[in-house]
Design goal:
Number of domains: 1
Number of strands: 4
Radius of gyration: 23 Å
CATH topology: Double Stranded RNA Binding Domain
Distance between the termini: 50 Å
Helix content: 40-55%
Largest sheet: 4 strands, mixed
Number of helices: 3
Strand order of the largest sheet: 1-2-3-4
CATH class: Alpha Beta
Strand content: 15-25%
Length: about 170
């Protein structure tokens, strides 16, 4: 009889925890769905016609050009709309891995930024996001031929992919 009573208490405890978990997941699911429905279609209709980005202190002279080219290539795939917008990127964290080391010898590159999507006509902010991308390190087998600009191009490609998945992809 005692074993049955203990099992009942344990079973009730497990059932309460399971019910709380299901309730929490349901609430999170509704919130995520509501945000995706509100932001997703609007984000998918825009076309980024201009990219503005600051140059981090330790970046190369080519950083802005390389960043614009690589991010524009990513956005061409994920934001094929017609509503003209400007992407404003303020880099808040920048660490570039040394191209002379491979991914087992040195830490990876990190690029973190505050991103604003702005209406090109009136300058109204449409949305803001914090985007962070990090790579495992420079993985080119011919790393002795890599330049700092090559590492920055890799960082910008990774950032563009993260930007697409975070801002321009609606979750269903």
């Amino acid at each position: 009889m005692k074993g049955g009573a203990n099992w009942g208490a344990l079973g009730g405890y497990i059932l309460r925890k399971a019910l709380l978990a299901v309730t929490a997941l349901t609430v999170i699911g509704f919130a995520t769905t509501a945000l995706a429905q509100a932001a997703g279609p609007a984000a998918q209709r825009v076309l980024v016609t201009k990219i503005e980005v600051n140059s981090p202190e330790s970046s190369t002279d080519q950083f802005q050009t390389v960043f614009r080219e690589q991010v524009a290539a990513s956005l061409a795939k994920c934001s094929p709309g017609t509503y003209p917008t400007t992407l404003q990127v303020v880099v808040t964290k920048y660490f570039r891995a040394n191209p002379s080391f491979n991914d087992t010898m040195a830490p990876g590159s990190v690029l973190q930024a505050d991103v604003r999507l702005v209406d090109a006509a009136d300058g109204k902010v449409l949305t803001t996001h914090k985007v962070r991308s990090a790579s495992a390190g420079w993985t080119n087998t011919n790393y002795q031929f890599a330049t700092l600009a090559d590492v920055e191009a890799q960082m910008a490609r990774d950032f563009g992919a993260k930007l697409c998945s975070q801002v321009f992809t609606a979750r269903k």
